[in-house]
Design brief:
The protein is mostly helical. The protein has one domain. It is built from 3 helices and no strands. Helix 2 runs antiparallel to helix 3. Bound molecules: zinc ion.
Amino acid sequence: MSFSSMMTLKCPQCEEGKQFKGLFSMYENCPQCGYKYEKEQGYFTAAIFIGNFLYGLIVAPTILIMAAIDEPVWKIALVLGGFSLFAVPLIFRYARSIWMYMDYITEES
Ligand SMILES: [Zn+2]
């Protein structure tokens, strides 16, 4: 299990199968090895927290920097709005991938 397969959104077990079939839709099981991704109802709830954390990591410094250089609030909102449009699908996918890998590591030991 490697960091690169987590970042390329591959199955935590075989590192071959894809996790996602669409922008927001996942396979139920790994298409290669059959590993079940969503183990139970609400399994990905924890991924929401990871996603919020990742989002905050990027957004908080942006707000602080823009406020420090005296950009008006509407400009900050515009930049963050534009950024969010493109970042939300990425963060959604990576948060789920990170969560599955974290779960897979703790499951193994
Ligand atoms: Zn697999």
